[in-house]
Design a protein that fits this description.
The protein is built from 8 helices and 4 strands. The chain is α+β, with helices and mostly antiparallel strands. The chain folds into 2 domains: 75 residues, 3-Layer(aba) Sandwich (Glutaredoxin), CATH 3.40.30.10; 114 residues, Up-down Bundle (Glutathione S-transferase Yfyf (Class Pi), Chain A, domain 2), CATH 1.20.1050. Strand 1, helix 1 and strand 2 form a beta-alpha-beta unit. It is globular and about 45 Å long.
Length: 207
């Protein structure tokens, strides 16, 4: 059975668990991270020298980095419906997965750490405001894309891209900031709630 190392409150671990739910992959969660076994433990570092979750172990195969993991799971466990083999369709999905990691995540990082995690190191009002502006701009880009597709991030049907993006959208709505009116984004959020995996690992009250 697949083993996922991490904690259920981590957004990146939830990417992996939601993907498993979508693909019907049974897994066990081995809890590592803050509040559980520390990731600087030598046993964990032997699996991931970055000391970060998630990590998976799949019949002796070890992999870290959440977006690499969900791509692997889709490729290895007959996930063509989520991650098609056709080159152009796959490239669009990858584009949005990478956008979530490279552009969207940095935009919300400061505001989220300040307002949800309440870190004392992230309490500068100007930086919070700047992060909120950048985050709102990214959400507007996503809203425009959803207006075009009239369905999901990469097209009319649910794909692997909707897992990292959907969790980020949940984080947007769960963070106490002003949310500009973005109708396609609101509809998308409700549409995701029709999926059992999102209800368990996304829209579950955990930002």
């Amino acid at each position: 059975m697949l083993t996922v190392l991490g904690k259920a409150t981590s957004i990146n671990v939830r990417k992996v668990m939601w993907t498993c739910e979508e693909l019907g992959i049974p897994f066990t969660l081995e809890e590592w991270g803050t509040g559980f076994r520390p990731t600087d433990d030598l046993n964990f570092l032997a699996l991931n020298p970055n000391a970060m979750v998630p990590v998976i172990q799949d019949k002796g195969f070890v992999l870290w980095e959440s977006n690499s993991i969900i791509r692997y799971l889709a490729n290895h466990y007959n996930g063509e419906a989520l991650y098609p083999v056709e080159n152009k369709a796959c490239a669009i999905i990858d584009q949005w997965i990478d956008w979530q990691a490279s552009t969207l995540n940095p935009s919300w990082s400061y505001a989220f750490q300040a307002l949800v995690r309440r870190l004392s190191s992230h309490q500068d009002p100007e930086q919070i405001s700047q992060s909120h502006r950048q985050w709102s701009a990214c959400m507007a880009i996503l809203d425009a894309q959803l207006q075009k597709t009239k369905g999901y991030v990469a097209g009319e049907v649910f794909s692997l891209a909707d897992i990292p993006i959907g969790l980020s959208v949940n984080r947007w709505f769960e963070t106490p900031v002003t949310h500009p009116y973005l109708p396609a984004l609101n509809t998308y959020y409700d549409r995701l709630a029709e999926r059992s995996g999102f209800l368990v690992y996304g829209r579950n009250g955990i930002p």
